[in-house]
Amino acid sequence: MPNKTQEYLNLAQQTAKELTRYWENWTDYLTTASRLYKYSYADQLMIYAQRPDATACASFDLWNNRMNRYVRRGSKGIALLDQSSSVPRLHYVFDVSDTGVRRNSRDPEVWQFNDDLKQPVSEMLAATYGISGERISQQLADVAGKLVADYWDNNSGDILAIVDGSLLMDYDEAGVEMQFKSAAAISVTYTLLERCGFEPAGWFDKDDFQAIYNFSTPDSVYALGAAVSDMSREVLRNIERTVKKTIRRRNAERSQYEYEQQERDLLDRRGLPAPEPDPEPAPETAGQVRQDAPELSEAAASGTVQHDAPVGEPVPAPDGGGADGREPDAADHAGTAEAEPGSEQGAESDGVGAAHEQSESTGRGTGAERTDLQLSFFDAHIPTEAKQIESIDQAESEKSPSAFVLSQAEIENALRRGSNVEGSKLRIWKIYQLQPDRKLRAKALAKEYAPYGPGGSSHTYLDGSSGWLDHDSKGLTFEHYPDHQKVLLRWDRVEKYIDLMIQSDRYLSDKERRAIDFPLELNAASAAEYTALKAQHPDTLVGFEAGGNFMFYGEDAAKVAKIINSALFTRDTALGEVQVTGFSPRLWARKSKELWSAGNDVYLAGLNEDGTHHQTKENDPELKNSRWIAAVVLLFEGFTVWMLLTGVQKIVFYYDGRFAIPAKLMFWGNILFPAITLLWSGFWLIRKRKTGVSTLLPGLLVCTVLNTVMAASVPALTSRYYLALGAGAINQYLLFLLIDLLFFICCVIYLSSSFIVAWKAKAPEHRYKGENLFFFGQITSKLNTTSKTMTLICVTLVLAIFMFIAAPILVGWASGYLDIRSMYDVQISSRYNDVYDEENLPDDNYELVTDFLSEHGIETDYDCTFSLYLPSKDDFHNRMKYDFPVVAISLSDYNTIRKMLGYEPITLSEDEFTTQWQSIATNEERDSFLKEHSSILTDAGELTLSEHSFYEEAIGETAYNSYTDVLYVFPDSICENLLSVIRNRYIMTTESISYENARTLEQAFSAEYPEITDTGVSYAIRLSALQVNTTKASNFVLQASMLYAAVVLMVICLTVLSLQQLLDASQYKYRFSVLRKLGVEDAHIGKLVLKQLGIWFGLPIVVAIIVSTMVIIYFIQTISAEISAYIGFGALMSQIGTTVSILALLLICYFISTWLLFKKSIK
After folding, report:
1. Which own/partner contact pairs does 933-940 have at CB distance under 8 Å and 24+ positions apart?
2. Model pLDDT for residues 52-93, shown as the tens digit of each residue
């Protein structure tokens, strides 16, 4: 039977196995971990497995002795595994909910984030991680992404080593990186948002946590959990410090700060072999005894209270070690409840624990055995509540104030912690290397310890007692608990103590000394090689491998140290006395990225076995390997295959060798060019696979242009050559056209960075001219990180520009068409499309209309009821569904209609005919028809074409047969012997018909003459009063909606372009300040800003204008007949000119305002 330790080991393994099985399990674990962020992943897992609702945990002794709280009878201990030794051991903690309180009991201190703390927390995140934002939630998400990227850079090897057996094995290295970053980033974000009270459970769903399922083995779950725990802990600790520091500063209401003069100058004593600080004067008692509840240090002796977020394995502070060799977190001011559990980990179990039933529903994924494992046999060893209360009260009554003596060891122990700001000890050490003046050192220390005003943190003294360490403009104030005695150590005294510690090598820990002690080996041969290399790359930061680090010398060292905040030394080397800094080769990716982001080129020269150096890293930052463009390429390849198969299908079913050459080219081109596209992709896969997608795209870009031309030719040539391709095929190729245009935009935007880098490499005379190096760095850095955004903006701009241009065209088309549709006050028409018996053909005079007009007193000026005839009866019986014959009108009826419209009458001989054409017909169509129909054989005899062969005045569209644009005009004697197939009536009234009367007449006519009758005849009535009203309303809605949408889209795009520049102004401010310090004048900086904004605005806009111009030209060409008939090209050009002027004005306003605001932001 396994022992209890083994059972808990099994519980931990089973819980870990279930964590990533369901995303709900994982988010429940993250919720627990967010409250316990100071614990290690292993301890978080154990607490989640047993008490997922735990909030503040500590040992039995700590609750009794330090917090004056007793553990209730029946409470159940939470077992934690201590695996620090060869044999795993158990120790137990209790949640605060298991304890009762006395009058003098202490409550765990809970920090809560609220709106009042938004500004200081936001500023802290910006200062610490370089990420700003208006919303804290978005800042936290961005910080999570940054930390995950850095974590991968530093730990990728360890993570890749644990993929065996998990679903991560299905991915290559890049895939594992993507899955890890996705899972870790969303998990860290969730944890941060949960702890800060944003309730992220409603923000995320299963799709957001897809990547966690790939972590399917205990090793991979541990790697992910440990990473999430470490990164979340770092951010939440910083937030905790900021929250508590802000609250304390506000509550203290401290007076204005002023520096006091140094009591005496000890410069004459710096020559002493072992200088000691002056004897400490009588301790200065602080002016106010703190009323807050006393707090426990995280390094308390045996067991500390864990609230919110304890840490199972204490994370060493970057600012130094304690006097006893421990590495406390200098900025942990976690109050009574938020101390480190590190001291708990090694402690023997005190026999505390008790059975306490808990339902399985408390948490997910831990199994039904959770409650059975929590030990119940400890019940006999827990003192009764009465005995605990008696012990607590007795201990409290025995406490008496004692004198608090601040020894030199205590002072040094506190100073080794540094300030609460990350990296403070290295900066303090740097002050003593560069600043000889003691007064200035003291001022610098005050600024380092209190950069944002007064602050403080919890502190543990060498005897194990706790207290508080305040720092403000006066100095460091040591406060001791529980007597609340205070001692002030002024900054001039602090400066002397640190000076003494540095001189005697007691300030920095071994780890910190290794961080700043760069080996500086550089012999004469290496110095000559470095000098030659620097001469070849005078404007590049040259990193030269020496002593196991990439070293920078002289001016390069000063630049690098300032950007990456590294230590800067002055050393005697083979180059002479120069400034030196550097970083480890394993950090090259992260450090180089920081240098590139500041607009610098970097050359890293690695060390060969023979002592010479070679270039190991690229001079320019690699173009971002974007997975989205790979996905776009794959989708495009799929559509290309579809286009190829469609082209083959159209060849098989529709191709005819008698087609005109343009039509033949269209058919074969839609097979040839998609095939070339696929062949190029296959060739790249075979020969160019290792060079990245950027080498594939230029070829695909050319192929895309060819495919676009071929796809666009299908609708145009189908109409021109009357091809049999249906509407479905045309719509299919319009879809191909749209896809090709979208891919063209993606390629151009993505490759723009490559074009700049390539031109920069091939034209060094431009690269190093003036400030071009800085300018190129700015642009390529921005394009690499915003290609998706730029693509989306470009696509949106294309849509907006098209709607801007198309709206007036469509409205003009509708208005012009209205003139044709509503030429008469009343139009009655009939159609015989579904009539197949002659006796069912329409032959009605529509007396209902006559009666209605008489009844309502509506007088008429003209009233023409007429028939349309077929030249031959065979045309009626042999017609096809969509191929109707041209009909004829008698000369007298035609002249009546012309008279109604104010046209001159025409004359014909008895053996002549002429034609009437719709305005939409083209000249080519008309001339071809007349050439083929110079004479007509009718049932009443043969007719020849009149000398005046055609008329083009508009007479209304219902005068023509279905699907035809021409009407014959025959002599009356001929029409009397022809078959009448259509019966129409046109009426012009003396006064306009009111809308109400028109609506009533339309309803009455529709009831009497339905649109489709039993005989197959269809009837229709048009009243100009209704047509004008409806068309104007629809035109207004169409134009308003399209123009509004276009303006909104345009404003959104330009706003995003503008804000992306302005929001990064803080980062740019530093970069441009560096230029000013290098001597670049403001005038040149203004030109740089103008060029940068020009490219940033110009790239998506120029691409959008090119693509939208192609689309608009194609659109206009497709409906050129309608434009000619209903709008006129002169009016069209005027509309386009007006629209373009509005767009240009909008763009200029945005550009100028952004330029002015940007210049103001970087000053």
Report:
1. 936/871, 936/968, 937/871, 937/872, 938/871, 938/872, 938/970, 938/974, 938/978, 939/871, 939/872, 939/873, 939/977, 939/978, 939/979, 940/973, 940/974, 940/975, 940/976, 940/977, 940/978
2. 988 888 888 888 887 888 888 878 888 888 776 667 778 888
